[in-house]
UniProtKB/TrEMBL annotation:
Superkingdom per UniProt: Eukaryota
Family in the record: Belongs to the asaB hydroxylase/desaturase family.
GO molecular function: oxidoreductase activity
Source organism (scientific name): Monosporascus ibericus
NCBIfam families for the chain: CmcJ_NvfI_EfuI
Protein name: CmcJ-like methyltransferase
Amino acid sequence: MEDPIVSTIRYAQADSEALITEKAYILNYPTPPGIPKSNFNIDFFPRIKIRNLRTANLDWDENGVAIAKLPGCMPKEDFDDEEKIEKFYLPDVHNCIRDTLGAEEVCIFDYMVRKRDAAFPYQAKTKDNAPQPALSAHIGNAWKPLAGPLRDYPMAYCDAKTLDPDTDLLTVDEVFPTVANEVYQVLYNPNHKWYYIPDQLHTELAIFAGYDSRKGQSLSVPHCSFDLGDKSSGGPRQSIEVRAFVFYGNK
């Protein structure tokens, strides 16, 4: 059995006194003096083992993550064209998710192309800088790099079977100038098991559960990017993430 990668993952911490009386929040806009941009901390947890997803033999219904092969894929430069994404890429992802999960229907409702700034994870956020798939773990759907093999900040996925939704999730209001979202930040639990796809290709799609109404929040997969250290190579990662509703009929 091959050795896992050992890296650092950032987790939220729920030990702030402010959380006794306030809901956790992150303000993604300039704040006046005396108004903190967040009322909780996110900290580094080193020496997290991240195993090979290809050889892990995980099951979607139990673990919430799967690898799928796209029939083909657009060249990287075409992902700057929304019309091409919606005409060519999204139908392939739709079919791939449906066939891999055995779903009756799939409804894609959102996607985002991300291009990692060379300074990530330390760059400042601007209106032209879409939020990265953060080093702190959060919840998602379907992801791939625009070019491969990927050796720059790959994605790691937490086995849903090792997540305790009653103790491991912090509900957070993420507030922007014109909209607010409710998201989850993940709290450290030594029972978490993390996996990644080594040298992920641009034709490989990682499909992972965000929420499954058949099982409640027990099938939610935190995911995050992580540093490969001296195994890193290539330019800054570019990727696309797609979110979809998946319907199973009578399952």
